[in-house]
Amino acid sequence: MEDDEEIMEQGSKSISDEVMEEKVCNLLRQFPFLEDAFARLEKNLPKNLHYHSAKHTREVLRDVLLFAEEDNLDEREKTLLGVAATFHDIGFLEKPIDNEWIAAAEARRALEKAEGFSEAEIQRIEAMILDTQLVQTALGATQLPSDSLARYLLDADLSNLGREDFFQKTELLRLEHGVERALFMPEALKFLENHEWLTPAANKLRRPQQLKNIEVLKNYLENHEAPKDVDLVSSDVGLGLSRLLFLSQLPLLLNSSLSTERVMEVALGYLQTMTGAKAATIFLLNDDQTELTFWAMQGGDSSRLKNKTMPANKGIVGWVVKHQEPVMSTDVRNDSRFFDVIDREGSFETLQLLCVPLSVRGGVKLGALQVLNRIGPEPFSPADLIFVERFGQQLSIAIDNARLFEQSNRMRKMLETLERRKGEMISVLAHEFRTPLNVIQASADLLSFGGALDETTRSKMAETLMSGVRRLTQLTSQLHALSQLQAGSVRLEKEEVSLAELVEVVKERVRVPMSDRRLQFLTEVSDPTLAVHADKSLLGIVLLNLVGNAIRFTPDNGCITLSVKSDSGMAVFSVTDTGIGIPEDEIPLIFEKFYEVGDSLEHSSGQYEFRSGGLGLGLPTSLSILKAHGSDLLVESKVGSGSTFRFHLPLPQVSS
User: What distance in Å separates the CA atoms of residue 163 and residue 235, rounded to the nearest whole number?
Assistant: First the structure.
């Protein structure tokens, strides 16, 4: 006790806050990459981080320089500590837990780019950042320094344990973790009582207030009276033991199977049960972030909503995705953001909801998670929102990991297939150019032949020459157009396009080949007034390419359907055929340039003959045009049962 009293008498601020703030500013001015790091923290940290913030990082930076100054460390050591302090929490930009290695890698990249730091110094900074991770020991969670310099960063990272704002910071940390106060505060007291300072400076400057904070926290736990300058949340917003246990086991559930969609459905079932909701849904953004797709659902009419799309700027879910902030709405009918088109088109009535953003890797938007309609008289609570947020954070990581795995696996298979077919594809290209060249060569030889040719024969030879030239011109034009589209150098000339009129144009353009091949062509436009804002000529090319593709791969006497309908504020275009279908493993490949479905060695030229092939540019061109319009091209196909190609464009007249 006497030792504690002596420490309390010694505790004083030997250096003023104003002086330390000036030192922080000088360091940031000296190294602009540190200012950049703070700017990223200010702008991109998730909104649900109450404790870990740019302000917290600045406090750690100030205190690490204070402790280094107090213990007379040299200027270079202060610089290394300043860099480590600035970057130690930057991993929170990408994931909420186990992010120290991300921060260490970020620091390395910044230092290598900035230059002036040796490899040994970079490694020391990396080690200091990694040391800030809490390690579970027999005595509880603690931080373990790897060298003497790391001790200063660790003391600064936990400096609020010995500051007067301890109670405020503890409340922020509790809110960030979403744990009930009755569960969190006893653990905080245990941590505070067991904490030992690692440096002489921190022991001198922070130990006295630490002892006072212990008494304050004990008093709170005994009497539930917080210090007067601390604003506690009016209701004890936090998670109980059952929900905390579920969240601790959630990563195992989300990574328990390679069937990502099935795992998500099971996880949503748990979420629905634990929030007492009638339904829970996951929305995912498309690559261009213009559309949201119902990816998984539990409760409600899941079969009706499966793969349904809606504009990404519509509704509460669109607002959440855009602003990256959660929403709790207890009466959506009085929320101006609510998008009721989906309810009107289905059988589900949304009354109240919780919606949280799904994002990873420095704010990369994935979509949103939504929980609908609390069962019973009680509405959703702030504790429910915190629980859904924590669920969403882990779900985001699982979805991102699954996508990366699927992309890697798909790319590996694609490369293997393309490598096998590379020689065949070269043969196809050679064939496509050789055919018109042979025609031109033969006609030229006849025309240059010394014998006399009558006028009729000469005229036919000239027409044959022109046909070959036109074919070559068409092939080179296709290649040039695709290269421009994929490079983004084609400017869209958007206008209001009547979809009924566009379908009639396509119908007339393919009337002859449909008749020649005895194919039934059905067209359907659900509403003759439907219109979209698009480039009319390019949109026509997309539909002609898709219909032309269907003609080439549908046997005579088959059926092709071109449909346009309104659904959830989107114009949904689909081309369906009764053709040969596409093997599942080839679907990702059909959008590659020069790729054609089927055996390339059986390739034959022709525009609309059955199984005739071209350069394999139609689908890549169509996809590039749709990407330029902020859409995508979806494929459903089964070998022997035909294919459906589908894309969506927003209907401008629909209001939110």
Answer: 26
DSSP string, 603-656: ----SSSTT---SS-HHHHHHHHHHHTT---EEEEETTTEEEEEEEEE-TT---
Encoded tokens for 185? 């505060």
The answer to which of 276-290, 305-319, 405-419, 624-638 has the lowest mean pLDDT is 405-419
Q: Supply the pTM of this predicted model.
A: 0.59
Contacts of residue 645, Cβ cutoff 8 Å, sequence gap at least 6:
546, 549, 574, 575, 633, 634, 635
Q: 41 is written with which tokens?
A: 């923290």
- pLDDT tens by residue, 478-508: 555 545 555 555 667 888 999 999 999 999 9
> Which residue in 294, 254, 291 sits closest to 390, CA to CA?
254
CATH of domain 491-656: 3.30.565.10
Calpha distance 402→251 (Å, rounded):
13
CB-CB contact of 298 with 326 (8 Å):
no
Q: Assess contact for 292 and 368: CB atoms under 8 A.
A: yes
Residue 108 CB contacts under 8 Å (≥ 6 apart), including other chains: 122, 125, 126
Of 300, 296, 267, the C-alpha closest to 282 is 296
293, 295, 298: which is closest to 277 by C-alpha?
298
Q: Which CATH class is domain 241-408?
A: alpha beta
Residue 330: its pLDDT value, please? Answer: 87
pLDDT digits (tens, 9 = 90+) for 75-129: 999 999 999 999 999 998 887 777 899 999 999 999 999 989 999 999 999 999 9
Q: Are 40 and 90 in contact (CB under 8 A)?
A: yes
Percent of the chain's residues with pLDDT above 90? 28
Query: What letters, b where the CB count within 10 A reaches 16 and e where it falls short, cover 55-85?
Result: ebbbbbbbbbbbbbbbeebeeebbbbbbbbb
Domain boundaries, the chain: 2-223, 241-408, 491-656
Which residue in 372, 375, 335 sits closest to 354, CA to CA? 372
Angle at 541 between CA 536 and CA 543, to 5 degrees: 95
Stretch (H or E) spanning 246 = helix 241-254
Top CATH class, 2-223: mainly alpha
- Tell me, what's the pLDDT at 12? 44
Distance of alpha carbon 87 from alpha carbon 110, whole angstroms: 10
